[in-house]
């Protein structure tokens, strides 16, 4: 897989996992919700491609404006923290700090990859409703004839859909980041505050793990 494209794609995907409330209508079909998010992002990337090359602030603005509103950040943070997200291992303040640090790290480390997005396209696989509160919609991103499957797991919040986890080419990103965070806690001697401050999720390593 082309490393540059994979880095760009992974950046885009991960950035969809980094923020607050969504505004999808409760009767909106899951594929329509995912298409709305993807189309909005791609449209902005293509429209602003030239000025994004050397403007990190503009890239961050696109992330926040086009992706932040559609994600369940607290749920993603809990997935990544794993058992450390429970009262037995962490305080509410520590969990809030983890979520904030994790979100900013993703924006800083992967947001710049958006500027490299040019002509990639995607197709949505046929979707069959199951009545699940966590439906999965799969997109195939196309890069020079190569298809990269990306599955979005959604959460039914009663009045809206939110994205709660992502699977890229068979790799569960939430689980891989959980493994990375667990390793970070161990490297810091079990000191959770230090682990939270030092945690740097590595998306490229997570996706490459399958190889």
From TrEMBL:
The keyword S-adenosyl-L-methionine does not apply. Pfam families: MlaC (PF05494). This is ABC transporter substrate-binding protein. The keyword Signal applies. PANTHER family: INTERMEMBRANE PHOSPHOLIPID TRANSPORT SYSTEM BINDING PROTEIN MLAC (PTHR36573). Transmembrane segments: none annotated. Keywords: Signal. Residues 1-24 form the signal peptide. Gene3D superfamilies: Tgt2/MlaC (3.10.450.710).
């Amino acid at each position: 897989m082309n490393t540059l494209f994979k880095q760009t794609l992974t950046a885009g995907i991960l950035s969809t996992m980094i923020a607050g409330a969504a505004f999808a209508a409760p009767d909106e079909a899951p594929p329509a919700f995912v298409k709305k998010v993807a189309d909005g992002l791609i449209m902005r990337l293509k429209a602003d491609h030239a000025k994004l090359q050397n403007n990190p602030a503009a890239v961050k603005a696109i992330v926040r404006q086009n992706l932040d509103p559609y994600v369940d950040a607290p749920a993603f943070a809990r997935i990544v923290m794993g058992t450390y997200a429970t009262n037995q291992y962490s305080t509410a303040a520590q969990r809030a700090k983890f979520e904030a640090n994790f979100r900013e790290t993703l924006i800083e480390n992967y947001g710049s990859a958006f500027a490299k997005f040019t002509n990639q396209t995607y197709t949505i696989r046929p979707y069959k409703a199951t009545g699940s509160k966590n439906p999965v919609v799969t997109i195939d991103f196309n890069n020079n004839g190569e298809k990269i499957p990306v599955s979005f797991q959604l959460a039914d919040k009663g009045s809206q859909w939110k994205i709660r986890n992502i699977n890229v080419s068979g790799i569960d990103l939430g689980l891989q980041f959980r493994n990375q965070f667990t390793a970070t806690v161990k490297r810091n001697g079990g000191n959770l505050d230090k682990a939270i401050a030092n945690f740097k999720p590595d998306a490229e390593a997570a996706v490459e793990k399958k190889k």
